[in-house]
Structures are given as structure tokens and as C-alpha cells.
Amino acid sequence: MPAWHSHPSVWLVLGGIWVAYLVAVRRHRTVAGEPSDRRRRTTLFSFGMACLWLGADWPVHDLAEGYLYSVHMAQHLLFTLVAPPLLIAGMPAWMWRDILRPRWLFLVFRLLTRPIVALILFNGLLLFTHWPEVVEASVRSELTHFTLHVLLVGSAILMWWPVMSPLVELPALTPPAQMMYLFAQSLAPTIPASFLTFGHTLLYPVYGTFPRIWGISALNDQLIAGLLMKLVGGFILWGFVATIFFRWHAREERDGWDALAFRQVERELRSKVPR
């Protein structure tokens, strides 16, 4: 286990974002919804930031970049499948509108969050970050490592948007489409995961040069990384699919058939009409 040491840049960047969020919510508390909703969103956002901090600070950061590729994979799962949906759910609609206020930014974000575009961007970047030369560059250069993590989190927010969107002007997919979308996403990591799990040679030779800890060989480390990517990643995605299905079923049982979710859009539009 690497000796403890702090990462001031992580505390500065993530702490600054978290404080900025709290300040914004406090200043907008009159339009941020009911107190219970504000507390719920603040809790979700804080958990999302905690997941980013966990993946970016000691010991996960040190183990991922200097010892075990399996920890590197767990780090990426935190950055792509755990933290982003929490961050999106924790940010109220008014905050997203403030961020996307510039017209050009709104148009770009709308394009990048189209389901097909978001899937291609996210999974293209996922494959890119698992290219052996890119992995080696990330563990050799702190700047490359930081840049790749920022791109991963950003692309993951785009990927989750069609499922988690709080904005009526950039709406989420209907529940059936959300399930199909996440099913497609669950298939994409199969290719790199299979190479990691069934490979008989090291895909990332740089990890073979690192000190071995806990009795884990480099090949076993690679196998564990593949299993994490496929099984844990799939468990998270299919957990969302199951949640969407049961919520959709309960709503249809209560309100009747509304496959295109027109009622939800109507409620959101009515909420914006001045009274």
C-alpha cells in the first residue's frame, strides 16, 4: 500500500466546485423548490462529488497509477457510472439553465446529448482510454492523466443525459427508450472487457513493471479489471434499467398508459406558466 500523501490539486478543484454549488443553491433558494427537494438534490450532488474525490485522491489514485490496473478500472467506473448520474440528479433545472445560458453552448450541448451522438462519443472515448499507448501515457504524465479523467467525466454526463435530464427543453427519453438505450450501453464495454478477461498476455506492459502488492500477479490484475468492467459496470447499468422499468410500471398502473410521457412534459410546461 502506498504511503499516505495528500493531493492538494484534487482538494482545490473538487472542493471549489462543491463550494460553488452550495453558494449557488443558497443564493437561489427562493426558486430552488421545496426545502426537502433542495436537501435531496444537495445530498445527491455531494455524494457525486465524494465519488469523484474517492477516485482522484489517495489511496485509489496512487494504487491506480502505480500498482494495479484493476484499481484503475474501479476508478474509471466511479468516474463514468457512479458519479455522473448523481451529479446530474443533484443539479436543479435552474442551475443547468444558468450553465447553458449562452446560446452557442446550449446548441452544442443539445447536439452532444442526442442519444446516438452521446453513445458514440462516450464509448469512443472509453475505447481510446483503454488503448495501451494511452494508458501508458496516462500513468507517466500527470497532465495527461488529469485531462483524460476530465474528458471521461464530461462524456459520461453526456451519456447519462438522455436518461437523467431535468430539462423539459432537453428532455430525457421515454422509459422504454431509456431501457433500450442503457441496454445498448451495456453491450459496448464487452469488447475491451473480453480482451482483458481472456487475454494471456499483458495488454498494458507498463503495469507489469510496477511493484506487486497483495500477491496479485499482473495477469490476474488484468483479469480482475476485465471482470470489474463487465460485471460491475453491467450491474450498475442493469440496476438502472430495472429501476426505470418498475417506476414506469407503477406510474402506468396509477395513471394509465402514457408511453410517450406526454403527461410529464405537460406538467413541466404548466409549472412554467406565470400564475
Please provide a brief summary of the model.
This protein is mainly alpha-helical and 275 residues long. Helices cover 76% and strands 0% of the residues.
Overall morphology: globular
Radius of gyration (Å):
20 Å
> What is the CA–CA distance across the termini?
61 Å
Q: Which stretches are low in confidence, meaning pLDDT under 50 for 5 or more residues running?
A: none
Average of the residue pLDDT scores: 90
Helix content: over 70%
Put simply, the count of helices is: 14
Largest sheet: none
The percentage of residues in β strands lies in under 5%
The total count of strands amounts to 0
Helix-strand string = HHHHHHHHHHHHHH
Give the helix/strand class. mainly alpha
Commentary on this structure:
With 275 residues, the protein is mainly α. It is built from 14 helices and no strands. The chain has helices at 8-27, 35-56, 60-66, 69-90, 93-99, 103-112, 115-129, 132-140, 142-164, 175-187, 190-198, 205-208, 218-255, 262-271. Helix 4 (69-90) runs parallel beside helix 13. The relative contact order is 0.10. The mean pLDDT is 90.
